[in-house]
Each structure stands twice: as structure tokens, then as C-alpha cells.
Design brief:
heterodimer, A: about 100 residues, mainly alpha, 6 helices, about 60% helix, elongated, B: about 170 residues, Arc Repressor Mutant, subunit A, three-stranded mixed sheet, 9 helices, about 55% helix, globular
């Protein structure tokens, strides 16, 4: 939901000068309150410092993307391992 | 000024295009690009004019008069799909150089590659992510995209390959 909320905010900013005015006045936190961000994330987004609204949007995107990043893939053994002769496999394992 | 990746720029432009589509209240293709320019959101009242021209030099180009009023000058003999695409592409230049666009800080991020980003923006405006996702879910394929969204075939091919920005 966080990325959707940010998408919604950025989309709104192109037709609603109020978003940019709030950012320039240091009141972007007020705008974020109306959107579906988790409390902790909203707090962090409200603290982001940027020279312009567009830069703020990109920095916010980085934060939200990092927040929703999928966990690392499960590490499976290499399929090549099954192709090695038994003895070599054992010695490789021993070395490792 | 921060440096911005290609993916971040695509995300930003995809959402700006979505904002304009939401303003139009459109729920299905094709997006009425010319209506957007004729009846723009209030921040672009001075920026979205359209002037038909006889020209062999370009399909469309954006320019401002000394009074700062902006217009897209578009070749009068373009076919409807090419006309829609050219107007959508030049709309980004209008936005970036507008008072609102400058207040947003868009020139810093987009001005250096405006032509390239204009082409990307035009694809997103003519075929916004939510509508393309719905089109794919209904079984729509690459071959139908140009016809459904009324865009030039070469543009539809590129749009089909564009990464999704709406749901990531």
C-alpha cells in the first residue's frame, strides 16, 4: 500500500499545486497524513530533506522501495553438484 | 541536485502521466490527449495551447511566445495516431518549462534528456499502466495495443516493453 500511496501523491502533485506548496512550506507531513502509509514510514518520509519537490519524490521512492523490497531468494544447491562424480563431490565438500 | 536513475525517472514520469489521466477521469482507452490540451488542469492554463502548422521540418514542437504563453505547434497533415503521440510528447516540454513544473523542480531532472523522456512520457500518457494492466488481464496482446490505445504501431511496440511503474 505504501508505494500505491506514494504513486497517488506524486500523481496528484502534477495537477494540485497545493502539494508542492505544502512541501515548500515544510508541511509535507500534513499531506502525508491523509495517505495510507504506516506510521513509522510516514514519519521518515516527513523528515526527508530535498531542494525540490521532484527530488523529494525520488528520495521518498527510494525509501518506500527499500521498505517493500522482497526478501533474498532461498539459496538452493547448485544443480551442477549432482553431475559431479561421487568422489569429487566428497572432496569438494571436504575442501569447502 | 541528486542524481537520478533511469528507473526512478520512469517511475516519476509514469505517475505524472497517471495524474493527468486521473484529472481527465478516463476509465478506458483511448486517452483523449487533445482534450487534455484544450482543457488543461489549472496549473497549465498558460501552457497547453495547440497550433496547427504546415511544416516539413518536424511533426510537432513546443514553443512559448514572449508573453510566456506556451503552445504545441503540430503539423496539420499527421494521421490521428501520430498527431496524438506528438501532442503527448510535447506536453512534457510544456509541463517541465511551465511555472508549476519549475516550482516542482522538473527541469533539473528532465531537461538534459527532454526528447527521450518526452517519448517515454507520451507512451505512459497514451497508455497508462493501470489501463495496460487491465488490457493484459483481459487477454489483450501486443498486436492489439496500437489499435485499442490509438497510438502508432512503433510506439505501441515500445510501450509493450516498458516496465510497469504503477504497481511496484
Amino acid at each position: 500500500m505504501s508505494m500505491q500511496a506514494l504513486n497517488q501523491l506524486v500523481a496528484r502533485s502534477i495537477i494540485d499545486p497545493g502539494v508542492v506548496q505544502a512541501f515548500n512550506a515544510g508541511r509535507i507531513g500534513d499531506v502525508l497524513t491523509d495517505l495510507d502509509f504506516a506510521t513509522d514510514l510516514r514519519g521518515r518520509l516527513a523528515e526527508v530533506k530535498a531542494e525540490t519537490w521532484a527530488e523529494y519524490a525520488v528520495l521518498a521512492y527510494r525509501i518506500v522501495r527499500a521498505e517493500i523490497q522482497v526478501p533474498a531468494r532461498i539459496q538452493l544447491p547448485s544443480p551442477a553438484e549432482g553431475l559431479l562424480p561421487k568422489q569429487e563431490r566428497a572432496s569438494k565438500r571436504h575442501v569447502a | 541536485m541528486i542524481s537520478i536513475t533511469r528507473e526512478e525517472c520512469q517511475w516519476l514520469l509514469g505517475n505524472l502521466a497517471r495524474g493527468l489521466v486521473e484529472y481527465l477521469g478516463v476509465v478506458g482507452p483511448p486517452i483523449p490527449v487533445e482534450d487534455l490540451l484544450e482543457h488543461p488542469p489549472s496549473p497549465f492554463d498558460m501552457d497547453f495551447g495547440v497550433v496547427n502548422m504546415y511544416s516539413h521540418l518536424w511533426d510537432a514542437t513546443f514553443a512559448r511566445t514572449p508573453s510566456q504563453r506556451g503552445s504545441v505547434f503540430v503539423r496539420i497533415d499527421l494521421n490521428p495516431e501520430e498527431r496524438r503521440y506528438s501532442l503527448a510528447r510535447e506536453a512534457l516540454t510544456a509541463m517541465v518549462t511551465s511555472e508549476h513544473g519549475r516550482a516542482m523542480g522538473l527541469p533539473d531532472l528532465l531537461l538534459s534528456s527532454l526528447r527521450e523522456w518526452g517519448e517515454y512520457f507520451a507512451r505512459q500518457l497514451m497508455a497508462p499502466d493501470p489501463l495496460v494492466v487491465a488490457f493484459r488481464e483481459r487477454g489483450g496482446g501486443e498486436d492489439d495495443l496500437a489499435k485499442t490505445f490509438q497510438m502508432p504501431a512503433r510506439v505501441a511496440t515500445l510501450r509493450w516493453q516498458d516496465p510497469s511503474t504503477a504497481l511496484n
